[in-house]
């Protein structure tokens, strides 16, 4: 079977929007959101906090996904992209189609993907210790995005961040508690001036 015939379970796709978070904020992107995630973050944007939820899951071939791409960069997210064994084939097909590729992951599951893919590690181990960040991600990630709710998240990951001082680290307020978490982030930035604030820009401007 050709790699273009491989099917992946899709939660949703959307085109010609902007990346709202992290290093590539403001860039024109398409999103491919893969279905499924066991980590169950309590504030999951896509509903995977409830493992019983009947969420979208449509098997679609890679060729069909390629045919609808409109932007120069494609963000593969979820759910959790790295639970899908055919993620490397999807990444490679997008690269062959001359697309830039970003992948957003909790880091709980590891497999090799092309080194050309930009990896955003958004660790959730502090929320669910059953799903620790796989050690390879601390070296492989291009950026780390930590969702701040209590401020203790930085302490939790400090031993990893301190051993990878060149990592780009973005602190993002948890959306539903931003009035509390934004001041916490400003305090952290005073102690960690190399870290950066990340806002969910797409929510502020009202795009998907």
Structure, described:
There is one protein chain. With 208 residues, this protein is an alpha/beta fold. It has helices at 62-67, 87-96, 136-140, 153-161, 178-191, 201-205; strands spanning 7-18, 28-34, 58-61, 73-77, 100-105, 118-121, 143-148, 168-173, 196-197. Strands 3-1-2-4-5-6-7-8-9 form a nine-stranded mixed beta sheet. The longest helix has 14 residues, at 178-191.
Report the biggest beta sheet as strand number plus sense, adding barrel if it closes. Answer: 9 strands, mixed
Shape: globular
Per DSSP E runs of 2 or more residues, the count of β-strands stands at 9
> Which radius of gyration do the C-alpha atoms yield?
17 Å
Strand order, largest beta sheet: 3-1-2-4-5-6-7-8-9
Distance between the termini: 34 Å
What percentage of amino acids are in beta strands?
A: 25-35%
Order of SSEs:
EEEHEHEEHEHEHEH
Ranges with pLDDT <50 over ≥5 residues? none
Mean pLDDT: 94
Total helices: the number is: 6
Roughly how much helix do the residues carry, as a percent range?
A: 10-25%
User: Class by helix and strand content?
Assistant: alpha/beta
How do the helices and strands line up, and which of them pair or pack?
Blueprint: E1 7-18, E2 28-34, E3 58-61, H1 62-67, E4 73-77, H2 87-96, E5 100-105, E6 118-121, H3 136-140, E7 143-148, H4 153-161, E8 168-173, H5 178-191, E9 196-197, H6 201-205
Parallel strand pairs: 2-4, 4-5, 5-6, 6-7, 7-8, 8-9
Antiparallel strand pairs: 1-2, 1-3
């Amino acid at each position: 079977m050709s790699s273009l015939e491989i099917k992946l379970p899709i939660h949703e796709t959307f085109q010609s929007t902007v990346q709202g978070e992290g290093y590539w904020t403001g860039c024109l992107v398409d999103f491919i959101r893969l279905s499924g995630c066991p980590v169950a973050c309590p504030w999951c944007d896509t509903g995977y906090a409830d493992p019983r939820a009947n969420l979208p899951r449509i098997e679609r071939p890679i060729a069909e996904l390629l045919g609808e791409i409109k932007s120069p960069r494609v963000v593969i997210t979820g759910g959790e992209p790295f639970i899908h064994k055919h993620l490397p084939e999807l990444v490679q097909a997008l690269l062959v189609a001359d697309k830039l590729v970003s992948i957003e992951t909790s880091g709980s599951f590891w497999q090799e993907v092309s080194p050309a893919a930009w990896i955003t590690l958004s660790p959730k181990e502090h929320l669910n210790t059953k799903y620790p960040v796989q050690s390879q991600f601390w070296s492989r990630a291009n950026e780390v995005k930590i969702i701040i709710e209590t401020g203790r998240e930085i302490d939790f990951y400090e031993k990893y961040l301190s051993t990878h001082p060149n990592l780009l680290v973005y602190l993002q307020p948890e959306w539903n508690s931003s009035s509390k978490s934004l001041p916490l982030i400003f305090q952290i930035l005073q102690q960690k001036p190399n870290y950066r604030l990340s806002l969910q820009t797409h929510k502020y401007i009202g795009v998907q």
